[in-house]
Write a structure and sequence with these properties.
single chain, 313 residues, alpha/beta, 5-stranded parallel beta sheet, 3-stranded mixed beta sheet, 12 strands, 42% helix
């Protein structure tokens, strides 16, 4: 463990959220003593005045920008304008004002949704610009992708040390289990558990189950972000993932088995699948700052289910 964090003031936007809560805990474990977490009730980071006030209050050396309006396919289809505007305006203004305020380092956390719909597998960072993102989440993905353009431009012109991680789909305890806005793992867990409790014979899921995804356990993601912040100071974006691809069908069957739901899984093919496949080349993160995910998927799913049974109702 290094001394990197001991004398640095750290601001974590979104620090009260899913990934943010684990990141803040790990920061403290790594020796950070001055951690500032702006909440949306006090600071609306879409508004420039609130950003300026936050920077004045936090006086950060390092900003890790996790705050985002995010959600699954349904939420992205319902609110594409909000997903674009809120994420773009938060990120672009925050990077600009952080540079002006003399912040030492900025971590602009991107999204795997920024990749083109038909990216060759495994996703390599150099293919990031070779096509348009998957339609259902393109406004969100492009808004976040603009932060990479800005980060590289500000590094080139002003020498501003901004890095751009691309985390894959996250999961774990404290995830969002609201079916209106949740991602696939918490949605599957909740649907299977509720069907089991009601004695239902089937669960209906979106799409046909054929798309593949890669998932990263939230504590692994937090560790990867801290390592990147400590050790990496370059302009190239980098993937954060587990390197393990699984189909949505296999994922649903695994979760049904783990929660002991023995009914039928029915696929509603009138609903969209989303991006056909997602799996990352994670070699850059290992090469740049020595990160490799540790949590096996099934064990991570067990921990997520256990947390939901105890806390999520």
């Amino acid at each position: 463990m290094s001394n990197y964090w001991q004398d640095r003031r750290v601001c974590v936007t979104g620090g009260a959220g899913f990934l943010g809560s684990f990141l803040v805990e790990k920061l403290a474990q790594h020796g950070a003593k001055d951690i500032f977490v702006p909440t949306i009730e006090k600071y609306d980071l879409v508004q420039r005045e609130d950003i300026l006030r936050m920077l004045q209050d936090a006086r950060p050396d390092v900003i890790i920008h996790l705050a985002a309006l995010a959600g699954g396919i349904g939420a992205n289809r319902l609110r594409p304008g909000e997903f674009f505007y809120i994420n773009l305006m938060m990120g672009v203004q925050l990077i600009h004002e952080a540079w002006k305020a003399g912040v030492e380092k900025f971590v602009a956390v991107g999204t795997i949704c920024a990749y083109p719909k038909f990216t060759p597998l495994p996703f390599k960072e150099e293919n990031l610009w070779n096509g348009y993102p998957e339609d259902t989440n393109a406004p969100y993905g492009l808004a976040k992708k603009m932060l990479l353009v800005q980060a590289q431009a500000y590094r080139q012109q002003y020498g501003f040390n901004t890095i751009y991680p691309l985390p894959v789909n996250l999961y774990g305890p404290r995830d969002n289990f609201d079916l209106e806005s949740s991602h696939v793992i918490p949605a599957l867990i909740r649907k299977c558990l509720e069907a089991k409790e009601r004695g239902e014979k089937q669960v209906v899921l979106w799409g046909d189950g054929s798309p593949t995804r890669e998932f990263l356990y939230v504590e692994d993601a937090a560790e990867g972000l801290l390592l990147a912040t400590e050790r990496y100071n370059g302009s190239e974006p980098f993937n954060l993932g587990s390197g393990q691809e699984i189909s949505i069908k296999s994922l649903a069957e695994t979760i049904a088995r783990l929660v002991e739901f023995d009914g039928e899984i029915v696929w509603d093919t009138s609903k969209p699948n989303g991006q056909p496949r997602r799996a990352l080349d994670t070699s850059r993160a290992e090469q740049f700052f020595g990160f490799r995910a540790k949590m096996p998927l099934e064990e991570g799913l067990r921990r997520t289910i256990d947390w939901y049974l105890k806390n999520g109702r």
